[in-house]
Specification:
By secondary structure, this protein is of the alpha+beta class. The chain contains 16 helices and eleven strands. The protein folds into two domains: 198 residues, no CATH class; 183 residues, no CATH class.
């Protein structure tokens, strides 16, 4: 242990002539502790919400999609599936059709995104099947007593509410495919469906705007022949989506094919979430900055109180650098204690919320029952590093002033 650190500890433990200095020291430690803990808790909560949103968005959609430029459609998708076999991280693939249409019930009509799927393959690629929480995933013909059988359609919960339809009700779906003929023969293509069930993801964008039908029915509705819009893939690691997408493009021969990843499909949303985390970090860092001002004021008052002692040290041969180290160590100890306590408290509270879920959320408002928490090790490292850096920065000026004291002037009137 260096003598500078030994003296710094003695200064921290010694009784003050002015007790107010000790009080400010404790306030500084508490301030750094609160700021560090608050940052850890808030960023962990934001990580939890981001994880929930990401899991629901990606669970509803695929990790990677293969499609054609200008939406020409794929006619030979079984051959494409053979070409991409063996690519690392791909665990499942399924064709899909995605287009816009209008759904008409008895007394209402709403625009919607119609996605056509193969129910068996879709269950291997996305979590859509798990989200069908009312009715059944029956996209085949559905019979109703005394009425004609129609193919099934699964509608988002909010969309079904706006259409005022229940299970077994008939709806008509209109597409603009018929207008491609032009002239007097141009009419929208209409298909009749029977509501087989509802799905609810908890994401309004999907629950209020989407409906699912079978691929053969979509090919008739959108007059696509035997084409599909693309193929969707599920990966073992979604973070490898861009690398896998590039490999898929290489296998299928490039243009006119193109790939799109889960991040590309939701780039704005995830970028905004990251931006919010930075804003929260900057704002909550102000708590630590305020605490560091207390460290500055404490050290300045200690310098004034210990003027004689500094003069004696310098007269005994202590260098300016040694004096600076004494006060940097003294302020640094306050920063380290505050940071360490803040990390421990932040981790303990986050862990308690994960295990015991003290903070619950109303189930009729939110899609989750408790405040979500996801702790990331890099957040802890980054927050602790920032707190220590700010604390050490606060010691520079007081330490510099102490090192510049003239021992003769410091001891003249003592």
């Amino acid at each position: 242990m260096s003598y500078e650190f030994f003296i710094a500890k003695r200064y921290l433990r010694s009784k003050r002539q002015v007790k107010f200095i000790s009080l400010i020291t404790y306030i500084s430690i508490i301030g750094v502790m609160i700021g560090t803990a608050a940052l850890i808790i808030v960023l962990s909560v934001m990580n939890g919400f981001e994880s929930e949103v990401r899991s629901r968005i990606i669970g509803f959609d695929a990790h990677v999609k293969l499609q054609t430029r200008h939406d020409r459609g794929l006619t030979n998708y079984p051959e494409i599936l053979d070409k991409v076999k063996g690519i690392p991280h791909i665990v499942a693939a399924a064709p899909y059709i995605l287009d816009k249409a209008m759904i008409i019930s008895r007394d209402r009509k709403e625009g919607a995104k119609i996605k056509a799927i193969d129910p068996q393959r879709e269950a291997e690629v996305t979590d859509f099947v798990k989200n069908v929480n009312y009715g059944t995933l029956n996209l085949g013909l559905i019979e109703k007593e005394g009425e004609r059988a129609f193919p099934g359609i699964i509608i988002g919960f909010s969309l079904a509410d706006r259409l005022n339809v229940g299970l077994g009700d008939r709806v008509q779906v209109l597409s603009a495919a018929g207008f491609q003929l032009g002239g007097l023969a141009a009419m929208p293509t209409v298909r009749t469906f029977r509501v087989a069930g509802y799905f609810q993801t908890g994401l309004y964008e999907y629950d209020d705007n989407a409906a699912f039908i079978s691929i053969p029915e979509a090919q008739r509705l959108f007059e696509m022949g035997n084409k599909v819009n693309g193929i969707q893939f599920k990966l073992t690691d979604m973070e490898q989506a861009r690398e896998v997408a590039d490999l898929i493009e290489q296998r299928v021969g490039g243009a006119p094919f193109e790939t799109i990843t889960w991040f590309d499909m939701n780039k704005t949303l995830f970028a905004w979430m990251q931006y919010e985390k930075w804003i929260a970090f900057i704002i909550l860092s102000l708590i630590i900055i305020v605490a560091t001002f207390n460290i500055v004021s404490t050290l300045i008052m200690v310098v004034l109180e210990k003027t004689k002692e500094i003069g004696i040290l310098k007269s005994l041969g202590a260098t300016n650098e040694s004096v600076r180290r004494i006060f940097i160590f003294q302020g640094g100890v306050a920063g380290v204690l505050g940071t360490l306590l803040g990390v421990i408290i932040g981790y303990a509270l986050c862990l308690a919320q994960i295990k015991f879920q003290f903070f619950s959320l109303p189930s009729d408002v939110y899609i989750i029952s408790a405040l979500p928490i996801r702790m990331e090790s890099w957040d802890f490292v980054f927050i602790a590093g920032a707190a220590l850096l700010l604390s050490l920065t606060a010691t520079i000026y007081p330490a510099y002033r102490a090192s510049k004291l003239d021992p003769v002037h410091a001891m003249r009137y003592e």
